[in-house]
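Filed under: proteins

Residues; backbone shape codes:
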Amino acid sequence: MPKEPREVVIVGGGVAGIFVLRNLFADKDKVPGGLHITLIKREKSGWISTCGLPFALRGWYELERTEIQKPGFYLEQGIDFRSESEVTKLNLDAKSVELKAGENLNYDYLVIATGRKQSVKETTLDGVFTFNDENDACKIEEALKTRNVQHAFVRGRGIIGLQSAVAFAERGIKTTILGGPPSLLPSSLDPDIGDIIKERLEKDGMRFILDRREITAIKGKADWVKSVVIGETAADKEEIPAEIVIIGKWMLPETDLAKAAGIAIGETGGIVTDRAMHVKRGRRSLTEVYALGDCVEVVDGITHRPKLNQMASTAVVQARVIGDNILSDILSQPRLYSTCEYCLSPTVADIGCGLLIGSVGLTTDAATRAGLKTISGKATKLVKARYFPGATSMTMKLIFDAFTLRLLGAQMVGEVCVAERVNEFEVAIRAGLTAAELRNMERSFDPSVAQLEDVTVDAAKKALESA
């Protein structure tokens, strides 16, 4: 008798869930009887490039272009792609999920990719938004088109907050950004590097408030926001005009379903998995249940402590591992089995105003909190010979362990060639390269594309001088 197809249920349709689907679908013909894949997501859309949404608000393209594949694309290939649907319960013992509509779906393998959730908006006034998905982006764009927005207020100093602020500023809207001290992008950049971003954005008219004041009131007129009040005492209270407000902080793992099912949640608030991405219940890994993406915690590759790393690049690797391991289990082929490497958080972002930022590994503050003593070197240099057009500068900071001189982290701000360098330094950290090895390493040279002595060499030299 022909074998029945294996049932895979994926809960969540962000990049994490979509890439598990893509990987499994590519290998479905290897499975005797095949795979039947069901993906369940709350949103109406198919595959959305969430990271592309802020650039649509900047006017680079229409929001619709961020939908890479519509639900119909998957349905036509025999995938049970259920948009505008919701899972209300995971029944791990019965190996089924319960839908809001009342239906129960059985599974052989369950993949939890529920993503993240954002803090509440703190008000019922219209004109106050979070910025977590395409629905938020559409609401923000509609407000910009239909309201007379002259002032914007952004709560949050991370990538999403800054990219939102730049989108407003480029439309001629006076924009204020509220964040804690001391500087911008603290999970990725040291203050001296973050201040480079701050100074450039201030030149474009953006105002930064980086202190410990919080929002104490949001005021409105005719149900639409008109101002934000920060500070509690008469001495530090300030009312800032705003016809649009973005709350872009407190991105929390969405773990409600997992918690209710008894799945282990870690100290960071994310789902605990083993390196094969199996979830845990008690001390036991559930080999038929996986989790990945923004809802899980990862293990830092340097400190070996748990942390959150809510990046698409991490989710794509995790999805590849899950695809390998489901196939390995079905086919009883251990050679297909794979695990996730420890996480070094390679990050790159176009902040705006022509600036790209990049980082990988630990910041100085993160290293200190982990009990590591560090030295560092910082340098600014043109990326190619000064007489070539487009010879822009890059500022780079390299952080090393003070005793072993091994590379712990790299940060950079420039206009070109940032992503390539972030990837290079991730390899260097994994390989345990030292400051001396980076200083003495042969590097490619052509005056039209690279300096004879790269900014990396200068930063490594300065670190060694401080050792």
In short: The mean pLDDT is 94.
